[in-house]
Amino acid sequence: MTGVSVSDKVTMTENAVCTTGWPAKMARKEADKDAMKRSERLGELFAVLVISLFGTYFIWLEVNGTGFFTPTFNNLDMVLFYGTLFYGMVPALARASTGRRNIIRPFDVVGNLLFIISASYFLLNWPFDFGHFADGLPQSMQFIFSWITNDLAQLLLMLGVLLTIFLAGWTSTQYYFVRRELQARKQGKTGAGPAP
């Protein structure tokens, strides 16, 4: 009996998804810029520096008992807060060292999930007092952040959670389709074949 088997139909469908429509356009565009320029890799190192400065600032606030971290800030809070913050350096360092974007996207997704978990936890258990956020800055600069209240910080954090949920899905989608496109290019095809 002649005809196309079910497995062949599935493979053909997968290939069609990757070679037509917006996934294919997005995959080709992202695959074209997967290899990072030197300036972009240096930008990742700058991001690591910024994260380190923020982390150091928060540690200073905690060690000096400024009041930004309230007495309810416990060991679990510390692990979630600093763990999520400093994990942000991992994808940046990985991109800087490999010079590639797509193979690092799973690390970005992990970072997204860590942020969603920790931020959601802190929205339910708020151990911060943003009235003291600027206490580590020189007196002449403290006015820059004096307008940030706990209510505003919680609102921004809630919006951050919603945005990051979308971002985690988008990054996962990018990783899947760009990976297939890069594999297809490596195999000398015009469209992506099924991922191994």
How is this structure best described in words?
There is one protein chain. By secondary structure, this protein is an all-alpha fold. It has one domain. It has helices at about 5-20, 20-30, 40-65, 75-85, 90-100, 105-125, 150-185. The chain is elongated, with a radius of gyration of 22 Å. The chain starts with 5 loop residues before the first helix and ends in a 10-residue tail after the last helix.
Q: Per the principal axes of the C-alpha atoms, what is the gross shape? A: elongated
N-end to C-end Cα span? 29 Å
The major β-sheet equals: none
Query: How many structural units, i.e. domains?
Result: 1
Secondary-structure content class:
mainly alpha
Count the DSSP helices. 7
Mean pLDDT comes to: 88
Strand content: under 5%
Give the tally of β-strands.
0
Low-pLDDT ranges: 6-17, 191-196
Q: What's the alpha carbon Rg, rounded to whole Å?
A: 22 Å
**Order of helix and strand elements from N to C terminus:** HHHHHHH
Helical residue percent band: 55-70%
